[in-house]
Amino acid sequence: MRIAQIAPLTEAVPPKLYGGTERVVSFLTEELVAMGHDVTLFASGDSVTRAKLEAVWPRALRLDPTIRDFMGPHMLLMERVRQLAREFDVLHFHMDYWPASLFSRQAVPFLTTLHGRLDLPELKPVYAGLPEMNLVSISDSQREKLPEGNFVATVHHGLPEHLLTPMPVEQSYVAFLGRICPEKRPDRAIRIARAAGIPLKLAAKVDRADVEYHEEHIRPMLGPDAELIGEIDDRAKPDFLSGARALLMPIDWPEPFGLVMIEAMACGTPVIAYDHGSVPEIVEDGVTGFIVKDEAEAVSALLRVAALPRTRIRAEFERRFTARRMAEDYLDMYEQLMVPRSERLRLVG
């Protein structure tokens, strides 16, 4: 199958630093290539892939200090995809509503995976006015916030099976992985770990937008038992996650997916997460972790998490959250979209 993967230009694919969407695009692209498909990746020129790279802009926009208008390069990206569209069987966008109007007016089937939060009020009229756009959610809870959207499937993210694996190290602390920001609630993580009497390591980045939050709310809480070690890459994650008794995810927002949960599971590490967004779809309570409603429940869960077999957690990752499973799910979608619309309607009714 001839497949186009179209990524945002903000980060490279895979990202040099933080970037969940671009990491997932990379995992999907590489898996499709490994399965024998002819894949072209539309992305920034500093991307790395075994697919054919169609470099619309020389480098990731976020790392280019000369760029002030992020929209201009993305308009160029849309036009380049339009020019080459007939070379593909299907176009797969990862750019929210950007492709809707232009690509609804051409013949090549396309779909868009929505990677972000959908509970913003301004999105409702936008997607209500784009009925021809085939949307894929990354969790069922994500799409509940946007009933106006034309969702055709939910596809959970997946990781390459051997990217992160359990390491033979002692579990001596609790882990927090991701970003220091209000919705991720690192303050809760610090209080939970302290109440349980277990050291906490926060492997997290501080975005420019969150510097004030970090300085005012998180830095004063740090100490010998709550250490901010900074952002880590995939090479460091197996040891970091394998050395944790559990991953704490005390979120305070409707998380669309939460890649860190399956990263922990890949290392056999249980997840203790608040009951928001996608959490009940990803964490199987009492099997791969515990779903909690407040700090007291989180402390209690942390004190009994050792009873969860880490081999079972890894096995659940292999069953549900590999990149191969994700790619197979998307291939099913591509094949359905390639059937003429009139034929699809006949088959379903």
Automatic annotation (TrEMBL):
Q: What are the residue boundaries of the Glycosyltransferase subfamily 4-like N-terminal domain, all occurrences included?
A: 18-119
- Residue ranges annotated for the Glycosyl transferase family domain, each copy included: 169-303
- UniProt-recorded name of the protein: Glycosyltransferase family 4 protein
- Note the PANTHER family from the entry: BLL5217 PROTEIN, GLYCOSYLTRANSFERASE
Q: Which SUPFAM superfamilies match?
A: UDP-Glycosyltransferase/glycogen phosphorylase
